[in-house]
Amino acid sequence: MAGNEWINGYLEAILDSGGGGGIEDSKAAAAAAVNLRERGHFNPTQYFVEEVVTGVDETDLHRTWIKVVATRNSRERSSRLENMCWRIWHLARKKKQLEWEELQRFTKRRWEREQGRRDATEDMSEDLSEGEKGDLVGEMMSTETPKKKFQRNLSNLEVWSDDKKEKKLYIVLISLHGLVRGEQMELGRDSDTGGQVKYVVELSRALARMPGVYRVDLLTRQISCPEVDWSYGEPTEMLTLGPGDADPGEAGESSGAYIIRIPFGPTDQYLRKELLWPHIQEFVDGALAHILNMSKVLGEQIGGGQPVWPYVIHGHYADAGDSAALLSGALDVPMVLTGHSLGRNKLEQLLKQGRQSKEDINSTYRIMRRIEAEELSLDAAELVVTSTKQEIEEQWGLYDGFDVKLEKVLRARARRGVNCHGRYMPRMVVIPPGMDFSNVEVQEENSEVDGEFAALIGGSDGSSPKALPAMWSDVMRFLSNPHKPIILALSRPDPKKNITTLVKAFGECRPLRELANLTLIMGNRDDIDEMSAGNASVLTTVLKLVDKYDLYGQVAFPKHHKQSDVPDIYRLAAKTKGVFINPALVEPFGLTLIEAAAHGLPIVATKNGGPVDIHRALNNGLLVDPHDQQAIADALLKLVSEKNLWYECRKNGWKNIHLFSWPEHCRTYLTRVAACRMRHPQWQTDTPGDELQVKESLNDSLKDVQDMSLRLSVDGDKSSLNGSLDLSAIASGDRGVQDQVQRVLSKIQKGEPAAAAGGGGDHGKKLLDGAASKYPVLRRRRKLVVIALDCYDDKGEPEKKMLQFIQEIMKAIRLDPQNARVSGFALSTAMPISKTVEFLNSGKIQVNEFDALICSSGSEVYYPGTYTEEDGKILPDPDYASHIEYRWVCEGLKKTIWKLCAPEGEKSPIEEDRKSSNSHCVSYLVKDLSKAKKVDDLRQKLRMRGLRCHPMYCRNSTRLQVIPLLASRAQALRYLFVRWRLNVANMYVFLGESGDTDYEEMIAGAHKTVIMKGVVLKGSEELLRTNASLLRDDILPRESPLVTHLNEGANADVIANALKQVSKARH
């Protein structure tokens, strides 16, 4: 055992750490121990706890090994080997611990999903006959939908065709992160500017060229900073004119495809996608303003004066999906989602590697915020576009909001016309990405390829080298015989791409080496030592294998290439009658396989993932097991050596490649979207022109009356008009009197009897009431002050001090008469309307002081003085009620919530609060707070059962309220914007330092937020999350110019000054 004394130290370290004790204990031991090195000798145990555990980094193990091998001093080499052994031991131990934790999470999650599926089918089976129940169970047990059934469903859809020209659709796409522009895309500049950017730009162009599509807007982030090109700060960029390109006379004024850049977050900084999350709400408000303006413009051009609403809003990736869900809810239009890359799948892969804990992964990638955004997107999406079936089953199947088996059951019930009790799963469809074939040079099948290529690379005349593309020269300089067929691989040097197995297969197959060359396009590099550890390891291994098998002159691996060089690389391989290979361990889609087929290259591809679907469509090559080195070599040799097979694969690829063109993609896309449940706002947003003129004259008249009152008030004479209108009240911003002036002037303008203006009889009063009830005063406001203070005692009753703050806020607004004239008030609360009115009356505050009341956590909106019954009872806005109806079924939801909160044999911690409930709000009184489920836990379980809604705790944690998916207090403000054109950016929201569990939604956005300290002592936020890794910093920006704070006890003057300051912030 000489020279292996460290083994004793290894065993001693295990014993000292308690046979696998925690790392924290080891760190504590290190802190308490004496550094024995200073005494002149080395103690392995001490070294382990001091150096290895506290500073291990597996990424440099390879570099350490290289140094060890190069060390001549035996003692130093032994020490370094010992260091590596400790590191490996620690990593293995850490990996096992993470694997065990992940196994426990997976087992628990699987049980919860099965339980949710079982509960859902049991609830739904109650209204089926015995025979139908048997069919339901049979469908539940089935793991696959037969292919014929899938085809039959497709055949029922009306395929999008040229006869749709008259439709003139407006489509909105969203892709937030990265650098997005139409020309000279900087693909690969960073991890955020990659294939997705190219995809969404090309999709926008392709959709705009489709018949029936008038305009496509691609919304992204506006960036104006010196780090990036000035073009990313341009608000608008045209991509194409649209279908009218051929005939300019047919193109509309605003038709075509455009990139629209919306400013949100710090626009003077370029932020990676992980840092954009706190600013999503601000983007939504900015995007909503653009869409409303564009809908009005398009309405004037092609809508006959009526707004042209988006046909669909399509979010790309999690951040855009989150945004699209909110925009879809605010506008009540369908939403489509494309995930591109999924958070749960990435989390699973990273945890399997065992290098990082879940907390470490979340801190780096904000993975929990991303996953929650994807879940919210699934809640709202009508359609989810995927590239492959594998993405549906193996990736989306990981989410709470999508269950493959339950989705089939719900689809079967929908076909039979059976009630699903409000349960819903989004429809997943496979639509492969399109490709732009404009750069593809189709070669004649019978061309003399050999002679042509020989002439190109310098035949007998020696005249052609200067005609060669530069990339050809870069490749051919590696090859001693460039005439041989090229086996081409094009990917990043990522271990998952399996390039080293390809090189081994090539190097160990002599017949293949004699017949062909190998070309590896492995990204761009300057110095291998400067690359990431994984990429550097792959490249180093490739170089060693080239040397091991003596492949010099047979393998090309150029250091650099541009995006524009890629078509030339494919053409070179095709000229030599080569083959394209993608040997990745798993390939989500495989766009390079389509590109290769378009250039006439047969393919060899992994049998794992998307290439299976591509091969089924094209039938232009062979599939292999990426782990089987011999199978890879045999497939390549077969295609290279059998020329008839090579030509057949080439021909098949060209024959079917149109299936992956952009026109085909868009045709399938529009066909699928057309099959969705189409919805859009049903009200008439714009009022008749004569009423608009009344409004304009009213503004001037009110100003004149105001000036008159100011003059008269100097003498202290409060004169009145017809004995009924108090002019000083108008000057002070008394809204009720202003309304009366509105009605007087309106009737005068329309030439109606003067008796209708003042107090001249009952008939006149009825006419006035009828005029006032048509449109709320809110539509004339330029600013809206929203009071959303959640002040409740421990019984959920509103505290009296809230009345004082409401009065002070109103007083602050009325300090400036000019400002008061254009400002309105809204109260946003979790209380029902009856409780709200009772509370305001107790403080002698008239309900008519408010232009809008948002009650029951955003499930109802009222306009005092507008929608009322004869007895004076206020009625909710019927348009808002229909607006939030989407995916809301109350009865099935009640039963499920009761089951979840009160398992069999246990006493329920909640009871239904009928007084606080309404048709769009199920309210429960929380009796035992310690047993109450957190919001995210409850939402997860509801999603697993196919129920889409918005649960929240409110009124100092004394109530659990469940409202429709599209309803919330924040979304109600956006509804007011859409319905009455009162821009969210002109709203001022007053909050406490805490509140109901929807409190965070109320802070972020384009509106101005005033947080009043010392007003709300206790909210309900402790019941919001079970998962501490979803951090508040991922929801809200730490600092924002749109948010200001007021100290406790602020009076009207202080409030008015704060409003002035925050109003100067950019929108």
From TrEMBL:
Keywords: Glycosyltransferase, Transferase
Record pathway: Glycan biosynthesis; sucrose biosynthesis; sucrose from D-fructose 6-phosphate and UDP-alpha-D-glucose: step 1/2
Pfam families linked to this entry: Glycos_transf_1 (PF00534), GT-B_Sucrose_synth (PF00862), S6PP (PF05116)
Biased composition (Basic and acidic residues): 112-121
Molecular function, one GO term: sucrose-phosphate synthase activity
Stated role: Plays a role in photosynthetic sucrose synthesis by catalyzing the rate-limiting step of sucrose biosynthesis from UDP-glucose and fructose- 6-phosphate. Involved in the regulation of carbon partitioning in the leaves of plants. May regulate the synthesis of sucrose and therefore play a major role as a limiting factor in the export of photoassimilates out of the leaf. Plays a role for sucrose availability that is essential for plant growth and fiber elongation.
Assembly information from the UniProt record: Homodimer or homotetramer.
Name listed for the protein in its UniProt record: Sucrose-phosphate synthase
Organism listed in the record: Punica granatum (Pomegranate)
